[in-house]
Amino acid sequence: MNAFKPGLPIRSADLSLLTMYDLPSENPEEPGLPDQFHDWQPQLLSQTFRPLAVPPDQVLTAADLNVYYDPRNPRYYKRPDWFAVVGVPRFIEGGRLSYVRWQEGRSPVIVVELLSPNTIEEDQGLTLRGRQPPSKWEVYEQMLQVPYYVLFDRVGDTLQLFRLEDGLYKQQQDSRLWIAELGIGLGLWTGTFADWERRWLRWYDSEGRWIPSEPEKIAQEQQRADQERQRAELAEQRAREAEQRLQELNERLKAAGIDPEGL
Questions:
Q1: Where is the region Disordered (predicted)?
Q2: pLDDT of 202-220, one tens digit each?
Q3: Domain limits of the chain?
Q4: pTM for the model
């Protein structure tokens, strides 16, 4: 198995290479997202992709963002349903309009495609190769050399996991994907996200625990705050009760002719 390689900068003597400001970020002829799942699933992936091995400000996740991959054909791009890059700034001034590989200097570490009838053959590498522009499979495998490639069919809730080995994608037989270099894993989780209960792709940590989404983090923080408040209220109540018992004791002592302050 190949060691993890986030990608090397593309060296070129041509200083006039196009940047994201020169390249289109939209194609009006392309259809929009096919369904709500294609909106919500990437959100859950981004919210839970938090590898401890990389500073948060050096982790980029994106969905439906143009990825330009070939400086020789700068108008060619692919638009993954979701991808993550490590070792690049999470934010740049003005926000990214697209991801330009030859400018950023690193390829995605993982790409996730959500299968749909219009793209399933290209996503699975079943289309004729050698055409121009090349297929997604060819771009991810041969040009960007993305180490991990995941296909998720939400209709059957099935996963296809591929790892780049010796320059080619090899399908993995495991039901989950573990990226040891980042200390993070990807699997199927049954639960509620965006008020929809179903099977979702999400990330888990080295202990096998699902990494909390933004709503879950808010709920956990609220729960901790409530517990702290309850503990404080209980401590205050016990202090009041102790003070009341002391006062009652003093009153009984005084009724018996004993000065409590003289004890």
A1: 214-239
A2: 999 999 999 999 988 887 6
A3: 37-211, 220-262
A4: 0.77
